[in-house]
Amino acid sequence: MSRQDGRGTTPPTGSERFYNRIAVLRTERGLSRQALADAVGVNYQTVGYLERGDYNPSLELAFRLSELFGVPVEAIFSRQPMRPMSEELYSRTASAGGG
Amino acid sequence: MIADPPIRQRRLRRPAFTATRVTLAILVGLLTLTILPFGGMGAWLIGYVFLVLATCVALRNARRQPGSWLGRRVVRRGLVGLIAVTCVVLVATPAPSNTSDTGSTGGGLLLLVVFLVVLNIALGGATQRVAAAPDSSVDERQEAMRNRAHRIAYVVFAVAVGGTAVVADVASQQTRSWLGWSFRGGGLFAFLELLFVLPAMVLAFLEPEFRPSDVREAMEAPRQSTGTRIALTLLTLTVGLPFLMSVLVAVLPPRTATTIQAPSGPLRQQPGAPSATTTCREFFARRDVGYGVQAALQLHAQVCWDGRRAVEDYGMNQSDCHPDGTDLVTVATTQCTRTTDAKGTLAFTYRTSVSSGLTPFLTRQVTLQLVVDRNGNVLQFP
After folding, report:
1. Which among B165, B179, B207, B209 is positioned nearest to B72, based on CA atoms?
2. Of the residues B142, B153, B228, B232, which has the maximum number of CB atoms within 10 A of its CB?
């Protein structure tokens, strides 16, 4: 994860932009933004920035999120737009069954 | 779930002597010391200082609530604008002087500084004091924002203060002398304000608006608790009261009290007066303008007449043209004349321009006039 070196108010664009599933994972676990913020030790507003992709987290924060949700970092963040989890899971299951 | 608690945002036990508490204690001490010499200022200023303190406490309690009105961008930018305007007014405010007839500037300066303190507290609440927060109490995004604000503030400060100083130093003799006295008056406060608070101002200006979804999803609690409402009311009062009282100086009709009596003391010996047929009277008039932010002008003179002409026995000289008392206003004498016409009528005019230190563009002309003819008829008073 790239730290935005002081550009905390400027949303990342182009190649700097990361896509993530934080909102989905949070909702699945029934966490409010405040609860998630408290769990990973950030301000509640930062969670909103992360979910919208307006802020790219540090590697430390990315791993904290990964440990909290119990999924690998690459399941939360991607450089490409993310497909819906259900679609991704189905395609993996189908390819595993077919192979 | 992760086992270890997060590193940042951990609740730390706050030391007893935090920077904010020490600053507040110093400010209260300074205000007390400053108010004491202004004994005639009345209880309202002390009351206002207590209002400021109550507002500070309320704002500190209201600052961390998501979606609070204090965190809205329009409020943050409004505070930045108000601080900037106050700094400009401070720079234009000369140093207090005991010799000038604008000696009341000290009161205006005090009012501006108190006003600035309130705005600073509000700004701190609006930005959650991120600009001066230690690394342990901000997250990485806030830390990045804080660093960016400090970088921008550094450049803005260098351009604003350094640029102004350089231009003023080379422009003309007049601007060079302005540069000299500006740092003895309100300019010093403006300089310190920019030095310490500019990063918070930049941060308040840059930080984007709350997204409604952020607020809605962050907390189920209502957006505005009683505490935030109280803070809003107190802040409105604290900011609005000085402006209201400043406007009243220009709007309210002056209150006038006059007395005319027989001379209380011995007459002074003057050529031509007094003679056996001379009659003298002592005139006293006082005109008050405004409440709280106010000025008192007085005329105290003794006039004698003998049927040929009216003359002053005392009290109509340049040294008598000064305000009797001023609270947070500037009084400038625009006319101080004493004339006796061919018919022997004596006319004395003391005209001033009164304006509040906070609203120097709103001025009021106040005139005290005494006209007595040679037979002792009072044609105008005051």
Report:
1. B209
2. B142
| Structural domain contains residue A71 | yes
Across the interface, of A4, A41, A52, the residue whose CB is closest to B144 is A4
Q: What is the pLDDT of residues A38-47, one digit of tens each?
A: 999 998 888 9
- Domain at A93, CATH number: 1.10.260.40
**Total structural domains within chain A:** 1
B201-230 residues touching A, CB cutoff 8 A: 206-208, 210-211, 213-214, 217-220
Does the model's ipTM exceed the 0.85 cut? no
A-chain CB neighbours of B71 within 8 Å are none
Q: Does A4 reside within a domain?
A: no
Residue A2 lies in a domain: no
Q: Give the pLDDT confidence of B252-273 residue by residue, as tens digits.
A: 888 888 888 777 665 555 545 4
One-character DSSP codes across A34-48: HHHHHHHTS-HHHHH
Quickly count: other Cβ atoms within 10 Å of residue A92's Cβ.
Answer: 10
Model-level pTM?
Answer: 0.61
Please state, in angstroms and rounded to a whole number, the distance separating the CA atoms of residues B50 and B92. 27
